[in-house]
Design a protein that fits this description.
five-stranded parallel sheet, 46% helix, Rossmann fold, alpha/beta, 13% strand, 4 domains, 452 residues, 14 strands, Helicase, Ruva Protein, domain 3, 18 helices
């Protein structure tokens, strides 16, 4: 039985919710005040808390903040009789999972609780999948329970069973090499070599020699045979990062290596058979590079058998606390510091930051914080003073109209993601299907969400 905490000063609401949820199989605890709720939460672990926004002794937001400090795993759903966009924005800024409007519809309450519990189950599945992938400490950066990351884990699980080419795309710092290592670690050839090559870091005239090798005497200074990285990788994985930087001549030879499973070392008369699996990554739009004739179309389709897009950190903010926990532990251990975590204000700042450099930037910020921090918890003062708030975060703007539009977009994206089709999404949003399509077009979400 899942333990649920109900916090509301209205007796009828407390009793009605408790009776209904108990009939649905939940273990319910009721409280009439914020102080009572915090006292109960200090002694017992709750999965869900339903908390009224306006309580006689303190605000629901204050209760939410304290509950999350007492139990970081708790999911809080706020209840309000004043359904304003400002209230909803505040609730999400403080870490609420969802909100409910009075008068309460019991079926809607139970539906929201079930969705929250499903998210918790997915997080557990996520941890299990990481163990199945045999990830090392470095590869643990592929973590998170957001829908985007869970989808990536599922793709990793599927492609790891094959030897097909995979193209990883995304902004710098999103973890493309980490995911490539995860695919290799989950494959049947995990004991073979993983060979990373940064195509942008090697001069073009040396890159072919590095990839395909050469024969002794092929050029001045070639005093012995060099097998090249395709051969060196064996049956393992050759990871070609920044693939969009390859010159066209090298692209043609790479295509042959993938298609024919053979390479021709410099100075050789006969090709050499190779078995390495090729994974590649880029932060460029290769389709645009193809259109501009800077990248071969045939190679693009050969590399892009399976595409995995790594989302920027600002699109999966719900993963930030988990990333922070892991990265802090890593840096505290490496630097010999006894830091247990971050305080609430620092976490809110980390969740609101822009993260132009994504996980790599977050990692650097936390390493700096561990170096400078003196206490058990990282505070706002330990973070860089110029840490930029995200322009997509409602808290980062002053104009109400801008904040409302951004919240509206985020809310609509979530409902579309959670609904099986647009008819159900329209029902949940309380609008007609035609109005929903207009709103999707207005907010630029034409390609998002379920079909139908």
């Amino acid at each position: 039985m899942h333990p649920v905490l109900i916090v509301d000063d209205e007796l009828l609401i407390r009793e009605t919710l408790a009776e209904y949820l108990q009939q649905e199989g939940y273990a319910v605890t009721v409280c009439a005040s914020g102080a009572e709720a915090l006292e109960r939460a200090a002694d017992k672990e709750f999965a869900i808390a339903l908390c009224d926004l306006h309580l006689p002794d303190m605000s629901g937001l204050a209760v939410l903040d304290r509950l999350m400090q007492l139990s970081p795993q708790i999911s809080v759903i706020l209840i309000t009789a004043y359904a304003t966009v400002e209230n909803a924005i505040q609730a999400f800024q403080h870490g609420a999972h969802d909100y409910l409007m009075k008068p309460l519809i019991l079926e809607e309450v139970e539906n929201k609780i079930r969705r929250v519990l499903r998210y918790r189950e997915l997080a557990v599945e996520n941890q299990w999948l990481r163990r199945q992938l045999h990830l090392s400490e470095e590869r643990e950066l592929v973590i998170g329970h957001s829908p985007a990351m869970l989808q990536i884990f599922e793709l990793v699980r599927k492609v790891a069973r094959t030897r097909s080419t995979v193209l990883l795309t995304g902004e710098s710092g999103t973890g493309k090499e980490v995911v490539a290592r995860a695919i290799h670690a989950a494959s049947a050839d995990r004991e073979e070599r993983f060979v990373p090559v940064n195509c942008a870091a090697i001069p073009h005239d040396l890159l072919e020699n590095q990839l395909f090798g050469h024969r002794k005497g092929a050029f001045t200074g070639a005093d012995r045979d060099q097998p090249g990285l395709f051969v060196y990788a064996g049956r393992g994985t050759l990871f070609l990062d920044e693939i969009g930087e390859l010159p066209l001549a090298t692209q043609a030879k790479l295509l042959r290596a993938i298609d024919q499973r053979e390479v021709l070392p410099v100075g050789a008369n006969e090709p050499v058979k190779v078995e390495a699996r090729v994974l590649s990554a880029t932060n460029k739009d290769l389709a645009q590079e193809v259109a501009a004739r800077r990248f071969r179309e045939d190679l693009y389709y050969r590399l892009n058998v399976v595409a995995i897009r790594l989302p920027p950190l600002r699109e999966r903010r719900e993963d930030i606390p988990e990333l922070v926990e892991f990265l802090l532990a890593k840096h505290a251990r490496n630097l010999g510091k006894h830091i247990k975590g971050v305080d609430h204000e620092a976490m809110r700042c980390l969740r609101a930051a822009h993260w132009k450099g994504n996980v790599r930037e977050l990692d650097n910020v936390l390493e700096r914080a561990v170096i400078l921090g003196d206490g058990d918890l990282i505070t706002r003062e330990d973070l860089p003073p110029d840490l930029a708030p995200c322009a997509e975060d409602p808290s980062a703007v002053d104009e109400l109209g801008v904040a409302v539009r951004r919240f509206e977009r985020q809310h609509l994206e979530r409902i579309l993601r959670e609904s099986p089709d647009k008819k159900e999404a329209a029902r949940r949003l309380g609008m007609s299907i035609s109005s929903l399509y207009r709103k999707i077009a207005e907010l630029g979400l034409a390609d998002r969400g379920p079909q139908g």
